[in-house]
UniProtKB/TrEMBL annotation:
Residues 7-124 form the NAD(P)-binding domain. One of its GO terms (cellular component) is cytoplasm. The chain crosses the membrane at residues 451-472. One of its GO terms (molecular function) is aldehyde dehydrogenase (NAD+) activity. This is Uncharacterized conserved protein YbjT, contains NAD(P)-binding and DUF2867 domains. InterPro entries: DUF2867, NAD(P)-bd_dom, NAD(P)-bd_dom_sf, NAD(P)-dependent_oxidoreduct. It holds the Pfam family NAD_binding_10. Keywords: Membrane, Transmembrane, Transmembrane helix. The keyword Magnesium does not apply.
Amino acid sequence: MKILLTGANGYIGMRLLPQLLKMGHEIVCTVRDETRLSVDKETRQQIEVIEIDFLEEPKENVVPKDIDAAYFLIHSMSSSTQDFDNMEAKTAENFNTYVSKTQIKQVVYLSGIVNDENLSKHLQSRKNVEDILYQGNFNLSVLRAGIIVGSGSSSFEIIRDLCEKLPVMITPKWVLTKTQPIAIRDVITFLTGVLGNDKTYNDSFDIAGPNVLTYKEMLHKYAEVRGFKNWIWTVPVMTPKLSSYWLYFVTSTSYKLALNLVDSMKIEVIAKDTRLQEILGIEPHTYKEAIDLAFKKIEQNLVVSSWKDSMISGRFVDNLEKHIQVPKYGILKDYKQLKISNPNEVLERIWSIGGETGWYYGNWLWKIRGFLDKLSGGVGLRRGRTHAHKINAGDSLDFWRVLLADKKAKRLLLFAEMKLPGEAWLEFKIDENNVLHQTATFRPRGLRGRLYWYSIVPFHYFIFGGMIKNIAKTITN
């Protein structure tokens, strides 16, 4: 079966793609920027990638005519706090236009549970998209999911941050709202299970785990699974905006996502039927089992995708290709080089930079810079990295975005997503003579940008000097 996979570089899309390939399907992935699709070379050779921005007017002859089915996994909740609902409606309308000229038989849409009478703006938008897709000339299968729990999911990472960092919490009253979480593994099983199944055509199904819990109970059960206790008190005085700032500063979530999540957390998200699990013979995992499964992936460094790798987790809005060519003029630069005798060892060290490993020198200074960035509305350091030793173009790496990661060419190029009065690049390269080159490039924006650079030159001297020495050093057993 030839399948169109929209949102292929998103959290769900990256999980779904390998499963569809294992099932023997031919996959066509749609992305706004081809360089953003963070997959290995082996996977890239098995798929077709086409660039489509579903917010723009549809173009002719872009989607192959012989598409049999499609997954609609496009969401805009993290992109805007104001008009994401209009953006989501526009993407659905344009999607219908694109596939109307194909032989498509089925579209699978992953939505949210919408059983409460008073829906949040986020859930109302999902329901509106569902209504638009029903107007298409195909059979629609809608899966309405509860909160998704899995390694790298925004919900799981927020719960993890809160519990691991705050054993004692003063929380807003929305933590008493009931919800019905579902394991990411079950979501993927449902998504693949409905493919080509005519019993699921032109119908909407709730999918959720077996446990109905308040957010407070979810936090307590997380702590229980991880082997510690936490204490939570609720207060009625915390406004939605204050709640959003609370989530933003304590967790790795973006402010836009935090604001929209808080709006949704006031609404009960509980499944009303189990028809689909009966049709497909699926027994969903419990919430505790979902947490266990998530940590098994984390501990084995097998996290396939993370919401943090999405471009909307940072401030990046341009095509990656536009920034791969590091400017040579009108820039300020810190350049260092060292002759090395252990290129393979050094390369592995470069490929492990950031996240839990840190930056090899002055990590406390990096943390201060991350905290200041968070205070100014930036991403800070909390995104970390998805894999401990693997990097692909498009990945987030603390407050950097990976522009190029070519291990064969021994080159790693990062672009800064922190709040800056200009643009910044950080590059590592090992040449054919085994010389390690480390270059920090800054293109200032006006006088303020130049003042910023010169004010931190003394810190650069120690940080970048210590960093290259520690990356290049030979470790003897």
